[in-house]
Amino acid sequence: MSDSFSFTKPKWDIIKDKKLLETPIFSLYQRELIPDKETTPASFYVLDAPDWINILALTKNREIVLVEQYRAGIDESSLEIPGGMVDEGESPMVSAKRELLEETGYQSKKWTKLGQTSANAAIMNNYTHIYLAEECVKVDEQNLEGNEDIAVHILELDHFLELVKESTIHHSIVVAAVAHLLLHDKT
């Protein structure tokens, strides 16, 4: 975090932390917390998940590499940027390079970390690390895992931004990545 802002609200004390459910991609905890200067605990539910990565992958012509896949949560297909979970023992950058190649067959030698975002800090404890991969080139075929079923699309960057503006592209983490890209491009 930046030193340009000083947070004023202290952390709350955790008095109870009970795991309610464990799945392959997250665990659900019930936490009893005591807010600062309070005596009565409050109950919260937290999804404990690994960090994620997302990649804004641009070709040499500044076209963007996108992935389309079905999303069970919304029960429809979604157009997104490549991404995935940070595997245990792997750095976010290594995960980003791996996921880009696996999902799209593209690679880049020019990487920039644009920032990070929390998908929903009220109930989730993980971050998404956002990377810009420039001058991407297709070097291989997709190497999809398990039940991944991903179509790769290459779009003009302006068309992509228009799809975000009109909410055709609506995944919140992708929209956050676009904000980071636009701020990066202003500097």
TrEMBL record:
The keyword Magnesium does not apply. GO terms for molecular function: hydrolase activity. PROSITE patterns: NUDIX (PS51462). Its cofactor is Mg(2+). Pfam families: NUDIX. Belongs to the Nudix hydrolase family. NudK subfamily. This is GDP-mannose pyrophosphatase. It comes from Rhodohalobacter sulfatireducens.
